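Handout for the seminar on molecular recognition.
Each group receives one record of this type.
Step one: identify the two inputs.
Step two: read the structure output and locate the region that could contact N-oxalylglycine.
Step three: write two sentences on what you found, then compare them with the reference statements printed after the record.
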Amino acid sequence: MPIPVIDFSKLNGEERATTMVQIAKGCEEWGFFQLVNHGISVDLLERVKKVSTECYKIEREEEFFKNSTPVKRLKELIDKKSGEKLENIDWEDVFLISDDYEWPQKTQGFRETMMEYRSELKKLTEKVMEVMDENLGIPKGYIKKVLNGGEGEKAFFGTKVSHYPACPHPEMVTGLRAHTDAGGVILLFQDDEVDGLEILKDGKWIDVQPIANSIVINTGDQIEVLSNGRYKSVWHRVNAKSNGTRRSIASFYNPSYNATIAPAPELIEKENETVNHLCYPKFVFGDYMSIYTEQKFLPKEPRFQAVRAV
Ligand code: OGA
Ligand code: NI
């Protein structure tokens, strides 16, 4: 069963109501869905692919295979011939960009293209968040406002450029170990050809099927709290592959570190939940991140419990 594919352009026409329902289902039942006709031009997406791949080839690949920890540890394990799998490490090359990070220097056009992409993607994220507001029955702009700590533009919009290099022993290591995302709303532009991303749905791992130029949306732990459990953050992982290098560019709209996160008042069933403590906790996002950093690859429920106690 493939994850839902939704035509975002239909939000502006006669099929608006149906599209709103599709997105609501994507959020409630799947936690992951793909948008096509999302308004980001194919020309820009093609340029993003080009500069990302070039950057990996020019500035990262050699270093990965010469000096990276996963490569060294995999070699050791192969030499040992013990049949063990590599634990506690991911088979990935990754770097983060945001407006204030250091940018890769040697790839022509990287910075300009990614600045343009990030600005377009941030606008798309805000549109998606407004759809979520409407579907949840909370005021328009509510999610954005909370993630920005109440006002202004304080949320953190980051972009993670990942490559999962072709792996000689994909059965011995994971590309990215299973986790739920910590933050708000995540928009992923994944490789057209090399697959590997899977989500856990009803106890089974299923593929996030590559569709050229689509954008995959998923929600993080903070949206689960804010929606009081209506939109659950979903476990996902990336398998290592031997047939090629997989590119994936994840942009995330996360709360500012001092934003207060709590279930939206409209979504709390007062009698049942506040009294019985079934409700999600209220906390400051920075405190959550201190816990997440230590526990990223573990279940989220203990993180919610730990942050409730801070
Ligand atoms: C992540 C993530 C998936 C991918 O960065 O949190 O899940 O396909 N990435 O790279
Ligand atoms: Ni993730």
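Reference statements: The longest strand covers residues 156-164. The pocket of nickel (II) ion (ligand 2) is lined by residues 179, 181, 236 (CB under 6 Å).
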